[in-house]
Specification:
The chain has ten helices and nine strands. It starts with 17 loop residues before the first strand and ends in a 9-residue tail after the last helix. The strands form two sheets. It has a six-stranded parallel β-sheet with strand order 1-9-8-7-5-6. Strands 3-2-4 form a three-stranded parallel β-sheet, with helices on both faces. The chain has 302 residues and is an alpha/beta fold. The chain folds into two domains: 47-138, Leucine Dehydrogenase, chain A, domain 1 (Rossmann fold, 3-Layer(aba) Sandwich); 155-275, Rossmann fold, CATH 3.40.50.720. The longest helix has 22 residues, at 23-44. It has helices at 23-44, 59-74, 90-102, 121-126, 139-147, 155-166, 186-195, 210-214, 256-259, 273-293; strands spanning 18-19, 49-55, 78-84, 108-111, 175-179, 199-203, 219-222, 240-243, 265-266. The structure holds NADP nicotinamide-adenine-dinucleotide phosphate (NAP). NADP nicotinamide-adenine-dinucleotide phosphate binds at residues 156, 179-182, 184-186, 203-207, 210, 223-225, 244-247, 253, 273-274, 277. NADP nicotinamide-adenine-dinucleotide phosphate is lined by residues 156, 179-182, 184-186, 203-207, 210, 223-225, 244-247, 253, 273-274, 277.
Length: 302
């Protein structure tokens, strides 16, 4: 008899990874931030205020800013929006950001990235006063993070580390591999993991044999901006996989289905890193307001 081999479960192993849900911890952090915002407003008569600055009308940026403003309003954080045309020059943008830095009614500033071609984005970021840099984009904030000094974290990296803590992931002595080295994401998340005693490898577009590095990762952070770029077959069995990517169609930088068969923990997209990013932004805005309004005895949010 010519028996057809049985289709065993090992042909297509079931997902082994536990989901790292970012929505529940984000909701808790936002709720605590809202309580603190209400207390600040009650005591000082001034609500915490986040100013958002948007250059041009890039649809993704418009959506991100709208979402961040809506979350602020819901949490009792006032939002002030500055919309500038795509034709704006560096000088004008810097002046607008400087104006918000000097405005005592504004406690946090978010300049939506990217600001478009032909503008010196770094100059615009540097016009944000350090005490209002709730998105953690200035050299001041970056250096403070690097030295382990108080300051505002870059929001997505801050959210990632918080999520790792929520799931009890031990970082000391672990090999963390960060794929991507952008100033707002890859670079700072690697530095934060280093600050938590992980051994960190950065990979980027010039890295030779990327897969060989990925295979060594106990903690893998994908921050590339290419849909399903990292494949499950390269994930070390038992690794913790953080997918910071967010590509059109709600797709991350990791091929979720194949990675979930090897990882021990993995973030979904959406519902993983994204909600944590916004929650950290709100919490840092409330902490900035508390500092500027002299409310010093509230419990720390982060
Ligand atoms: P980015 O500025 O474009 O940086 C992408 C990085 O990926 C660069 O460092 C680049 O290397 C590296 N890269 C590109 N091709 C590569 C390749 N073939 N092999 C290895 N590395 C490669 O992007 P980003 O702003 O960091 O964003 C990355 C992703 O995260 C995007 O999907 C974005 O939407 C998402 N994101 C999500 C959130 C959130 O809240 N969830 C926040 C921010 C960003 P080089 O430096 O050599 O060019």
């Amino acid at each position: 008899m010519n028996a057809t081999p049985a289709h065993t479960p090992t042909d297509t192993p079931a997902p082994t990874a536990r989901l790292m849900d970012g929505t529940a911890p984000a909701r808790r952090l936002v709720a605590r931030s809202a309580e603190a915002a209400a207390e600040i407003t009650r005591r000082t008569g001034t609500a915490p205020c986040l100013a958002t600055v948007l250059v041009g009308e890039d649809p993704a940026s418009v959506t991100y800013v709208r979402m961040k403003r809506a979350r602020c309003e819901k949490a009792g954080i006032r939002s002030l929006h500055v919309a500038l045309p795509a034709s704006v020059g560096t000088e004008e943008l810097v002046a607008a950001v400087q104006g918000l830095s000097d405005d005592p009614a504004v406690h946090g500033i978010l300049l939506q990235h990217p600001v478009g071609p032909g503008i010196d984005e770094r100059a615009a970021f540097e016009a944000i006063a350090p005490e209002k840099d709730v998105d953690g984009v200035t050299t001041h904030s970056f250096a403070a993070m690097g030295f382990g000094l108080p300051g505002f974290a870059s929001c997505t990296p801050g959210g990632i580390v918080r999520l790792l803590d929520e799931y009890g992931v031990e970082l000391a002595g672990k090999h963390a591999v960060v794929v991507g080295r952008s100033p707002i994401l890859g670079k700072p998340v690697g530095m934060m993991l280093l600050g938590r005693d992980a051994t960190v490898t950065y990979c980027h577009s010039r890295t030779a044999d990327l897969a060989s590095h990925v295979r060594e990762a106990d903690v893998l952070v994908a921050a590339v901006g290419k849909p399903r770029f990292l494949r499950g077959e390269d994930v070390k069995p038992g690794a913790v996989v953080i997918d910071a990517g967010y590509n059109p169609g709600n797709v991350g930088d990791v091929d979720f289905a194949s990675a979930a068969r090897r990882a021990s923990l993995i973030t979904p997209v959406p519902g993983g890193v994204g909600p944590m990013t916004i929650a950290v932004l709100l919490a840092q805005t409330v902490e900035a307001a508390a500092g500027q309004l002299g409310v010093r005895d509230l419990p720390r949010l982060l």
